[in-house]
# Entry
Amino acid sequence: MSDIILEMRNITKTFPGVKALDNVNLSVQRGEIHALVGENGAGKSTLMKVLSGVYPAGTYTGQIFYEGQERHFKDISHSEKVGIVIIHQELALIPMLSIKENIFLGNERARRGVIDWNEATRRTQELLAKVGLHESPNALITDIGVGKQQLVEIAKALAKEVRLLILDEPTASLNESDSDALLQLLLQFKAQGISSILISHKLGEVSRVADAITILRDGATIETLDCRRDVITEDRIIRGMVGRDMTHRFPPRDHNIGETIFAVKDWTVHHPAHAGRIVVDNVNLHVRRGEVVGIAGLMGSGRTELAMSIFGHSYGRNISGTVSKHGQAIDVSSIDRAIANGIAYGTEDRKTYGLVLIQDIKNNVTLANLGAVANGFVINEPKEMVEAQAYQQRLSIKCSSILQKTVNLSGGNQQKVVLSKWLFAEPEILILDEPTRGIDVGAKYEIYTLINRMADDGKGVIVISSELPEILGICDRVYVMNKGKFVGELTREEATQEAIMKCIMSQEVVEAWKL
Amino acid sequence: METLKRIFSENIRQYSMLIALIAIMIFFQVITDGALMKPLNLTNLVLQNSYVVILALGMLLVIVAGNIDLSVGSVAALTGAVAAVLIVNYDVNFAVAMAICLAIGAAIGTMQGYFVAYIKIPAFIVTLAGMLIFRGLTLVLLEGQSIGPFPPEFQALSSGFIPDPLGANGLRVTTLIIGALISVFLVFLDFRGRQNQKKYGFAVSPFYLFLLKNLLVVGAIMGLTYLLASYNGLPNVLIVLGVLIALYSFVTNRTVLGRRIYALGGNQKAAKLSGVNTERLTLYTFINMGILAAIAGMIITARLNSATAKAGTGFELDAIAATFIGGASATGGIGTVFGAVIGAFIMGTLNNGMSILGVGIDWQQAIKGTVLLIAVFFDVYNKNKGQA
# Structure
């Protein structure tokens, strides 16, 4: 196994003012799964853009050898022609087109510009079988789940006769079973001689499937670990990524829990489009002062829908039930009322729902509570600057200044801006939906620390997360949600991964028995 | 020198359109043998093009909020026609008639805004329908005739000048005094802003730059007022324009309302989840546009001294072009009042300069279209360069 398919030598790429990559080396053997890990901003995506020709030859220095030859890729189609296919974190599928149309987009089965749909359908069926997706080639992308969409992307790559597959955070938005299926697929490809480069923040899956791991930090190669020779633990990878030992992945906290400050009773929400469908079914929950409450559950179990319906009825219709704070019913029928009543909701999708990306940090931080920096209707800009700067320092948001546009920040720093916005709104109840999705270990730790601090300040925090270790690591109490219902409530002591899964499974069994 | 270079490169985009405007003015000044900047012509330039500025102010808010309004030309025509029918045919007092027209503009804006904001029909479609509906209603109302002339009080709206009690022969002293007051006020505002920044410990630009900038601004204002003063003085319309520009600059830059409109256009979903009532805000931008269209309609009707069915044709395109030339983004969230006003004056100077040269309406259109494309091309090009 010394057959090297790809070698990148001394790659250096500079942007005006910053050196994004500094003499980076990467060497991938044929038929291996090579993981590329590093904190946000370490240069992983930049390196892959250099490889795939997004940054064309000439805009960087260094050499790329692929299948024994030096290559100078001019653009993506150039690198795809030789079998290098990259699947981006944000899927590049067109929602209103069918699976087969998407698979052959830009690569149409056509003769003189006329598409042979029978041939396309036949090939699509073959490809879907290969990736284990049981869907009609005519199904629309918008009608299938994210996990299946990911498989369609891979089928699309296969259609291009891929030899080196690059996956950028493929499992970031997948649940456990979909992630497992995807990783299995990578192992299958490996057996067929297709190499993969896997970029991931989920170190558990990295150490499970990778044959080699290259660690980047601050634009430089730190080391390449060989997993075939030694057993590589997660802690070992983290040490390489952050440059020191992380003794705790979750910050310690004093539990100082008081009386119940927030309660939701008999909360039922219907689907906004299908009136008859119940998405949240008779949920009861409460939060005490200084408590961090987790909501665990699979994707699609109704967690986000529950949170958004509480936050100003921003999801669903025919909402029934009561919300109370300090024992008194409060009005959450619109978002501004919910905010005025001390509720805040940090979204799971910060780019679409959390930030105004074309605006700077300052404007985003103050958006939800402009009244606090205004005299009447007039914004006091100097005061706004001071407030925003205070949050930038308090949350250590890395930026050139608070006038930097949020679109140019890394994921972790964007998340901190979203958090700043909600802290600035001074809520008593903070609901955080997947607060650490797609961000690196160091930034995660900082966000956990912030959550602790909010609890210490006597606020109530609700954390929704698909990562069970995270829920177990930071929460005082855990609700388990499945199919729109709360199916379990576990204290910190009772909560284990097994206990949570048991709650979910037992409800499945009950339902099966009813049928 | 380094700081100067940095400040220059940071501001080049903001001021590139101003530089373009100055270049265009110099070009016409030279090619028309100085006719462009003659006091009489300068006054005409302001009178002829005031409607573009007024509509561009409303269009800016609509476009920043992520929509568009194609109906403003028709709305201007309709309100002008209503004013004519009321004042000429029914002898209604001109002030009452103007109030009714503003109310009609607001009502039309409310209706269109309601469909866009609450029923979620794309603004392009709603206002395209509005463009046809209100043009049609104008024809119905005027029955194919022109209605005029107007009493002098109403005409004064567009062709009057501010009174000059101190008037010596030749130079209008009141105009110069107002120009001086505005200059002092602007310098004061800039100075206070600078002090405020210092107070909070922010870096400020070097003093000589502050001085240079203010000297240029004061020089431009005093030069302009001197030219106007040596003809008939300040036109009433320019006072209306000045007040509106100041008001909209203030609203967009300094108020909660303005900030929320930018957030809405930048990311509607994020703005909504931050407690911004996005529907109501969209409605407001359309109501505002309707009112400004009514003002523009009355001004051009007063200027032509008659209401015609053809009035206001193509105004929406002038206003939209001015806004985009001024750097607004077609996807929303970006654009400034300053830019839109400069854009409007670029359009106006082109109109006026080419008319002096005797360029036909056919070529005028083609040239204006080309200027729009070039302006937006440079804007996009600069943005891409800024990102790489």
Observations:
- The first strand of chain A starts at residue 4 and ends at 15.
- The first helix of chain A runs from residue 44 to 52.
